Amino acid sequence: MSDPKGFLKYPRQTPPYRPVEERVFDFQDVIHSEVFTQEQTREQATRCMGCGVPFCHNGCPLGNLIPDFNEAVYHEDWGLAYQLLAKTNNFPEFTGRICPAPCEHACVLGINQDPVAIEHVEQAIIETAFARGLVQPRPPVHRSGKKVAVIGSGPAGLAAADELNRKGHTVTVYEKDRYPGGLLRYGIPDFKLEKWIVERRIRLLEAEGIVFQCGVEIGLDLTTDELLRHNDVVLLCIGAARPRALNIPGHELPGVHYAMDYLTQNNRRVTGESFAEPDILAAGKHVVVIGGGDTGSDCVGTANRQGALSVAQLQYRPRPADERSDYDPWPLMPMTLTTSSSHEEGCARAWEVQTKSFVSAPDGRVKGLVVADLIWEKDSTTGRYVFREKPGSEREIPCDLALIAIGYRGVAPGAIWEQLDLLPDERGLIPGEDYRTAHPRVFVAGDARRGQSLVVWAIAEGREAAAVMEEQMKVKM
Question: Which domains does the chain have, with CATH numbers?
Answer without folding.
Answer: 6-131 (1.10.1060.10), 147-241+409-475 (3.50.50.60), 256-404 (3.50.50.60)
